[in-house]
Amino acid sequence: MAAQRGAAVMDHLQWLPSIVTLAEHNGDWDAYMEAQYGTFSAAFIQSKPTIFNPKRWAMKRHPLSLNKEATFWHVTSEGRTEEDRVPDMRRMERVGWIRPMIDRCRSNNHVCCWPSERRGECRPNIAVPDFSYIVVLEDHDEYIMLWTAFYVERESQRQKFRKQWEEAHKKRA
Asked: Torsion over CA of 75, 25, 43 and 106, rounded to 10 degrees?
């Protein structure tokens, strides 16, 4: 049964781009980071999601580090403070997933979307069906912004997110 469920989830991920690994760049970290930043830039700087119109799309630009926006570092690294963030390979590999997940949010096509609140801010969450990858937005009156995105390693954490999604759906019904 678990194998069938795993296969079904993988089928639901076929619409996402392949993950991009450091090995595909021959272990050259700088080339890898620049390639992943190029993907990020194409998705969020050179073009912007429009599914939230009339709200404008925004991102946290500062503090810039290595000429890259703070949001880029939030979707590719982990750590409690800006100064202590370290690269997270699972996040980095999936940079190309973020925009397609956002673009499908309104249709709920192959993604699970639900609102959450954190520190008084509305934070829409978007997850792949097995809750192994989450995109977090922040919704303001006049704009919406990409806050972070992360790989969910532990099954207990995935179940926690699934429960949040299920509870949000119960409230909407």
From this structure: -70
